[in-house]
Fold this sequence. Notes:
Layout: H1 14-24, H2 32-42, H3 58-70, E1 76-80, H4 88-105, E2 108-112, H5 116-122, E3 126-130, E4 133-138, H6 140-145, H7 150-155, E5 160-169, E6 173-178, E7 183-187, E8 197-202, E9 209-210, E10 221-231, E11 235-241, E12 247-253, H8 254-260, E13 270-273, E14 279-282, E15 301-303
Parallel strand pairs: 1-2, 14-15
Antiparallel strand pairs: 3-4, 5-6, 5-8, 6-7, 8-14, 9-13, 10-11, 10-13, 11-12
Helix pairs in contact: 1-2, 1-3, 2-3
Amino acid sequence: MVFQSYAVWPHMTVFNNVAYPLRATGVxxxxxxxxxxxxxxxxxxxxLAERYSSQISGGQQQRVALxxxxxxxPKLLLFDEPLSNxxxxxxxxxxxxxxxxxxxxxFTAVYVTHDQIEAMAIADRIAVMDxxxxxxxxxxxxIYDRPANVxxxxxxxxxxxxxxxxxxxxxxxxxxxxxxxxxxxxxxGNGAAVGRPVHVSVRPExxxxxxxxxxxxxxxxWPGKVTLSTFLGDATQNISIRGTHRGAWCGIPARRSAExxxxxxxxxxxRRGGHRPRRFVREPAPGDDPGVQRGVQEARVVGAD
Length: 305
């Protein structure tokens, strides 16, 4: 097990920290040095074997904890938020190293984390839990693109959850009238009953912002005004107010936002849309199977919380 707090003993050298589980389980003394050196080499700490934990960095201490867990050659390894105490750049480096070690050594890993980005980056399958209840199990892409309910949609990344009622529906799409009186056309409306309360989930990257009025045939286009812009390097996120008390997050590549003027808060009226929201969530109906995908364009009608 790899602990969140490292649990590296300060009175022991790196070598003795890693050797501890071998000694505790009665491994023959003559085998211990070679096994410890192999484990330290895996995490690139073989040159620091004689240092004490107070003489190495936090990232190196985490590697010591990882080597100590690997030295016993486990088939199953539990990670309990192992990177939460590291700075952002080191977390990215360490999660890549953990992924590479897992693939090279072939052990099964159960990785507990509250960091959604970390979970999607490192996992083959994700189980999203809410108060001890598993809300959804699937691949990172399935969890993000096809959330099973409102909780998962809001928990796994940023999203715009629009409340409304189905006003029209057929086998391929539905139209939802939001509480603000906006009509949203959603691909994959199969199974949606007219008049049923729903949530439409729109990821920020699925929206666009432009100062030019789009073609009259464009769908899901609404006027609004940029009230806040935040530069994040590779993207600019904007809150677009549509003349109501609620706004929407839009994730726009920085170059495109500069060209469109979307990074100027309080600027001219903007329009948001030109896309089809890809997630459609509704209350369950009799006979529903929340694990069955319906509709097209990756849209999914699923049971809500």
